[in-house]
Amino acid sequence: MESKGIENARLNAERMLGHVLQLPRMELYLRFDQPLGQQERDAYKNLLRRRADHEPIQYIIGSTEFMSLSFKVNSQVLIPRPETEVLVEKALSEIPRFFGPDRPVSCLDIGTGCGNIAVSMATYIKNVSVTAIDRSAPAVKIATENAQAHEVLDHIDYRVLDVFASDLTEHLDGPFDVFVSNPPYVTSSEYENLPIEIREFEPKLALEAGSDGTLFYRRFAQIIPNLLKKPSLIILEIGENQAGSVKDILSLDGIGDIHVGQDLAGRDRIVMCRLL
Fold first, then answer.
1. Does residue 132 sit within a domain?
2. What's the pLDDT score for residue 253?
3. Measured between alpha carbons, how far is 274 from 144 in angstroms, rounded to an integer?
4. What is the average pLDDT score of the chain?
5. How many domains does the chain have?
6. Is residue 8 predicted with pLDDT exceeding 90?
7. 3-state SS string over the chain?
8. 125 and 228 in one domain?
């Protein structure tokens, strides 16, 4: 796979072998001399071919890790990134501080994808209830399965809704205390230059957001006054060069304390603010 330009080829190969044998990676080293049966060899070769064609390993093995939780993923949903953990960690720290540790808190998650944000919040904050929407029915199906797997489905209301629908607010039981989203924010030109693993395999509708990447933030600015309580908390993921634009877009009446947070690489990654 190295000849195909696959980074960390050995690690990828070991993860796929562990998937075929249903063994953790460390166990592979303890059974290094165990021969593979024909069926296992055929299955492993098939996975190697798929990875050599640049299909993401998360889709190949059907799962990924996020916030120390396992999530089912396939080509219908965006693969959760470690950077998005910054958004969830901020929510985990700010919600109890803002609303108190025991008060029930209602949260709206727009563009839920595989449900990684909603499930993580419902898992780690017991007084949170989440309404999570996505315009993709297959994505909502996967998100529902992930919530069931982590036993938090009774705290999450999944709905197939398009944030751009003119009657959106009529289909939501707002107003909400918290608004979180990792929306599409890749510009049209950036999308054309994404790695093949992303461009050819992950859903475009979960990535690309117009010529300047701010299409969804502009829509958020339109709907926030009708969807959120006062006071409320807003936490959004952004592209690394979008902080100024998103802050300008969110400069609405009542919006205050706009804060930009960075990921572990020091890149702007979230915008957090309050509606007062």
1. yes
2. 78
3. 29
4. 92
5. 2
6. no
7. CHHHCCCCHHHHHHHHHHHHHCCCHHHHHHCCCCCCCHHHHHHHHHHHHHHHCCCCHHHHHCEEEECCEEEECCCCCCCCCCCHHHHHHHHHHHHHHHHCCCCCEEEEEECCCCCHHHHHHHHHCCCEEEEEEECCHHHHHHHHHHHHHCCCHHHEEEEECCCCCCCHHHHCCCCEEEEEECCCCECHHHHHCCCHHHHCCCCHHHCECCCCCCHHHHHHHHHHHHHEEEEEEEEEECCCCCHHHHHHHCCCCCEEEEEEEECCCCCEEEEEEEEC
8. yes
State whether 81 and 130 are in the same domain.
yes
- Prediction pTM value: 0.92
**Is 197 domain-assigned?**
yes
115 and 217 part of one domain? yes
| Tens digit of each residue's pLDDT (9 = 90 or more) over 58-91 | 999 999 999 999 999 999 999 999 999 999 999 9
Q: What residue numbers bound the domain in which 44 lies?
A: 2-53
Half-sphere exposure of 156 (CA within 13 A, CB side): 31
Instruction: Say whether both 198 and 130 belong to one domain.
Output: yes
C-alpha 171/C-alpha 251 separation (Å) is 26
CATH of the domain at 222: 3.40.50.150
Q: Per residue in 189-227, pLDDT tens? A: 999 999 999 999 999 999 999 999 999 999 999 999 999
- For residue 6, what are its two tokens? 């696959």
**pLDDT tens-digit profile of 86-109?**
999 999 999 999 999 889 999 999
Structural domain contains residue 70: no
Same structural domain for residues 108 and 162?
yes
Do 144 and 258 have their domain in common?
yes
